[in-house]
Design goal:
The protein has 204 residues and is α+β, with helices and mostly antiparallel strands. Helices cover 39% and strands 25% of the residues. The chain starts with a helix and ends with a strand. The structure holds FE2/S2 (inorganic) cluster.
Length: 204
Amino acid sequence: MSDALSYLQKVRPEAMQAYFSFLREAGKSLDPKTRALISVITKVDKQTEAGFRQYLKRALREGASANEVLDALLMAFPTLGLTKILWAVDQVQKLDLPEFRIIHPAWHDAASAAEIPATGTLRLECDGRGLFVHSGTNGVRVYDACCPHKSTAIPATGVDGGALTCPKHGWRFDLDSGQCSSGGDRPLAELEHKIEDGRVWVYW
Ligand code: FES
């Protein structure tokens, strides 16, 4: 919250309480991610740097992807115009958030094929990315260890037989399919892989 808003809250508490209640009520039918994306657009429109950073991070925490943020900005082109959109992209680049880095897809040498258990799950780090290599009823599958809820890096201790549980809010996933079996509504991100020359290669 800005210093000015804090000041107004102290000197005009009733009026400011009504203002915040209005904002809560106005967005009550929207999910948190959509609310945050709309707030991002309003901050770009006013070009308030601190507010933009705050709501951009909130939108990402609420599950918005970099492409969804960019889509929201581009969709608002008729009202924002190119100059304000470029201002927002400048702010994003200054923040250097990993979600917005340009990645050139490539095959990554993740592990020796001999490390893959006949049945079970291997947690590994490869070129800065956490992975689960799971061997089960659907053969070998490779998943991003990043939780699809709020991007928590799920540790090896989350594996329990054929299930994986994120420690942050308890979303549970079926490792044979990657589907979320309880707690949430999005699957693990599965990554393309191949086994070649005794190595496990993963593409992203
Ligand atoms: S971050 Fe919320 S369940 Fe994983």
